[in-house]
Design a protein that fits this description.
11 strands; binds zinc ion; 5 helices; Glucose Permease (Domain IIA); alpha+beta
Length: about 250
């Protein structure tokens, strides 16, 4: 649609420059040429603006394609950088610490993503998420906008858990909950409370087991927890650089 606008604006520009009659022509030749120049300038500005809009729209389309195909944290980070941390994209990407009490710059995890000795079973097993220790009853937040796909009670290993499906192939799980307060089919917003930390299921203590899936594969959710902070830092940097360019 924007391309059409662009095309017609271009057409109108050439038409107006070459053929449009100007009122008062002949009486005051100086005024006549000035008004034409003014019109040309306005149109040129409008065309540049249109061109920028078209480029921005194309870039956003490209970024969305990249986000759908992204397989690593770095891919996702690049998309956000390209779109200058687009606010609506941010809401669709797991970008929060699921426990808000945790410091945004740094917070403790009791077990990371990857192979480890299982704390209960003792054998070397793959740990498909991160464990964030927290007191029983600590609120658990949805890390992105999404739909509650499952809320399961008394699962053998995950205990009471919630599964959220997000846009662009993201799925998140929140395990070992004391209880959850959402039901399947319900839509949730980023930062909305979905349940409370507990120690249900196969666990040695109260903590949140947080899993992040992208296009069917488990990713390390840890770096994703800092995306909101990264955005804040990027915006601060942008504000500073525009300030310094003003003061020059
Ligand atoms: Zn765990």
């Amino acid at each position: 649609m924007k391309q059409f606008n662009y095309f017609f604006a271009l057409l109108f520009y050439f038409f107006s420059v070459n053929y449009l009659p100007v009122r008062g022509a002949g009486h005051n030749p100086e005024l006549f040429s000035d008004s034409i120049r003014l019109k040309q300038d306005t149109l040129k500005t409008y065309l540049v603006w249109l061109q920028k809009q078209v480029i921005r729209e194309e870039l956003n389309k490209l970024a969305l394609d990249l986000l759908k195909q992204a397989v690593t944290y770095t891919d996702v980070y690049q998309v956000l950088r390209i779109t200058r941390w687009d606010a609506s994209l941010m809401r669709s990407i797991p970008a929060l610490v699921p426990l808000r009490y945790a410091q945004i710059k740094n917070f403790r995890i009791s077990s990371g993503f990857g192979f480890r000795k299982h704390p209960v079973k003792g054998d070397n097993m793959f740990h498909g998420g991160i464990d964030i220790p927290a007191p029983n009853g600590t609120p658990v937040y949805a890390v992105a906008d999404g739909i509650v796909s499952r809320s399961v009670k008394y699962h053998n290993s995950l205990g009471n858990f919630v599964q959220l499906n997000h846009y662009n192939g993201f799925i998140t799980y929140y395990g070992h909950l004391l209880r959850f307060i959402v039901h399947p089919g319900q839509s949730v917003k980023q930062g909305q409370i979905i349940g409370y930390v507990g120690e249900s299921g196969l666990t040695t203590g109260n903590h949140l087991h947080y899993i992040l899936i992208k296009n069917g594969l488990a990713l390390d959710p840890y770096p994703f927890c800092f995306l909101m902070y990264e955005r804040y830092k990027a915006e601060e940097k942008l504000a500073k650089s525009s300030q310094s360019s003003f003061s020059k």
